[in-house]
Amino acid sequence: MAIFSIHRIHDTFLFRYSLNGYPYMAHHGDWFGGKAVGMAVLNIGSLTANVYVTHLHAEYCRDKDSYLPHRVVQAWELQQFIRHTSAGADMVILGGDLNMHPQDLGNRLLRSYTGLQDAYLETAKFDGCEDGMTLIADNPFINKKELCPFEKGIRIDYILFKGSTKTDIYCDYMSTTKGSVPNHPFPYSDHEALTAGLRLETHTRTETRSDRQPKIKDSAAGKLAALVDIVTEARTEVKVGLHCAERMRYTATRTGVMGLALLVLELAIAAGPEQPFPRTSFYLLAALCFAILLTTFLLYIFYTMELKALQGAEDQMRLAVGSLQEKLRGFPLAQPHNARGGPQRVMSPVHWPRRNKRGAHCGQSGLCERSL
Amino acid sequence: MAIFSIHRIHDTFLFRYSLNGYPYMAHHGDWFGGKAVGMAVLNIGSLTANVYVTHLHAEYCRDKDSYLPHRVVQAWELQQFIRHTSAGADMVILGGDLNMHPQDLGNRLLRSYTGLQDAYLETAKFDGCEDGMTLIADNPFINKKELCPFEKGIRIDYILFKGSTKTDIYCDYMSTTKGSVPNHPFPYSDHEALTAGLRLETHTRTETRSDRQPKIKDSAAGKLAALVDIVTEARTEVKVGLHCAERMRYTATRTGVMGLALLVLELAIAAGPEQPFPRTSFYLLAALCFAILLTTFLLYIFYTMELKALQGAEDQMRLAVGSLQEKLRGFPLAQPHNARGGPQRVMSPVHWPRRNKRGAHCGQSGLCERSL
């Protein structure tokens, strides 16, 4: 990951994702890559721009994506990082290989929570691959089978942006490279590169017209309800990951115990008066037992770390859902717009599902069917 | 680490430090503890409070503190995390076991960069151990030898705070526990607990009196210059860490190569027509070689990760020093205050040391001798 800038970089910060695949999946290499999100703070005139760059865990098999919980936690941490570090920024730009299709859970989570807009969807002009695809079938560096069932290619690299109360930001044009380097038979990389031209407009926001308020509130409530849905979906995915990690840790523990039992048994037999083993087999078996014990010990530690990270993310999501639901309760019920000026029916707390302190599931359906 | 609050926690975020000791130092246990800084966002009335909690790597030997570079990088990441996530906060509170004395490098780095104030130094009333000590010699859970040469104890736990342009924050009282639990022969923990009463005052800052401006600028320039000094000191410490990590990785590589050479030699001899080894020794030696190869491979990966994290922090510090120096150039020279109203001599860029693009060392002495 790199950020090059003609504006001076004043400050930087790097956040390493807590989860990023498995070290023993060495042929996938993601764990060794050490995925993170980097931030650079630029001053453009009197404005502050926070520019982020990231790369999330790859998807190797869409049907049976064992890395999905990790990627969802990465998307969760990415949105947290951007939200919490961009409060003082006048504009936010994120570029990166998100390894997620436009409507994938992590992508929806990121965009809904941060309010970032997709440059491809917002651009006035576009010049590039069909449907903005960045991983295309024609690329000689990729395995076409991995694209299946998307024969032509997929869009997994993004430029996202948002302004602030001081700044509006528009995408005037966007382009992607289209395969080979001019006059060469090969492309620059396995992905197509993205370029976006963004235009800034500063303003003083004085347009809080009171007649627009109810509509704004309705739409905000709708967005909040949708966000509750998305976070709940992410929570479910993380729970699946938790279940898998628990099972893996259990398997590692059981294998370790079996290795230990084998070692004890061997030593007990060897301590007896008769030696039924040839010495070679004895040493080989002992070495095998030690290897099993060491490997399962390392795996146990790794899975414990994975479990703690997943559990932490799940806890944070539970708390976030609770907080979002409380915010939602503060909004008036969606109502016909001709009721303007009349007394507003404020949702009474008793209408809302109770006992949602621990689980968002119970609250979710009730909330979202009403508000959307 | 835990945050308990009577105000609802609306949002959370956790940052794991990139460096935290070594897994093979299992008797110290810090690596297994997984140190981090946690943040909780509370709404207190109409105000937003960011509350942070952290625990840095312990210091086991002050004279020969091999963990110092790790702790300095943790302090660096802590200040980055607080600065970048607190832009929207009306008040910031940090509590934690920093494992640093009040004037230690990491502590100065944290307080200078964030502007956080030490509750012990700011409190109107104090009731507790002498000098605010939190790790006292009387505690039965600690090893008194580790305190040496501070026989009575040390102050390594802190409550730090700061307000904002909207809020002033004052510490009305502070206390520590003083050894044993009332009516019991043992204390609550190996550290004394801290309590602080903080008072908030909100205001609209309209007091930008123009006659105070020059003095404020001088003091800000002095603080900036001091900060440049501190970051440079931290950079030096990180460089020492880099040197150590490089040496360790080199040792691991060399040992691994020797293990491989031994294995190849053994196999070459075994492939010959005569068998000089008893079979048992052959297998034992081969097992030893494999153990060496595996261990050095794991160590190589670990030290590479350590190197990358240290190098990353060093790069960030270099960039920060450059940015701080540029800011400093924008300030007028310190001048006699009776020159008020006269034309201000603005520091010309040619007065400043050049060629400091990569090194802060050359810039530092020039800057700080002038401004302090």
From TrEMBL, chains A, B:
Documented EC number(s): 3.1.4.12
Localization in the cell: Membrane
Membrane protein topology class: Multi-pass membrane protein
GO biological process per UniProt: sphingolipid metabolic process
GO MF annotation terms: metal ion binding; sphingomyelin phosphodiesterase activity
GO cellular component, one term: membrane
InterPro entries: Endo/exonu/phosph_ase_sf, Endo/exonuclease/phosphatase, Sph/SMPD2-like
Pfam families for this protein: Exo_endo_phos
Domain of life: Eukaryota
Gene3D superfamilies: Endonuclease/exonuclease/phosphatase (3.60.10.10)
Residue ranges the record marks as coiled coil: none
Keywords (A to Z) from UniProt: Hydrolase, Lipid metabolism, Magnesium, Membrane, Metal-binding, Sphingolipid metabolism, Transmembrane, Transmembrane helix
TM segment ranges: 252-270, 282-303
Domain named Endonuclease/exonuclease/phosphatase: residues: 2-191
Functional pathway: Sphingolipid metabolism; Lipid metabolism; sphingolipid metabolism
Family to which this protein belongs: Belongs to the neutral sphingomyelinase family.
Protein name: sphingomyelin phosphodiesterase
Lineage, uppermost ranks: Eukaryota, Metazoa, Chordata, Craniata, Vertebrata
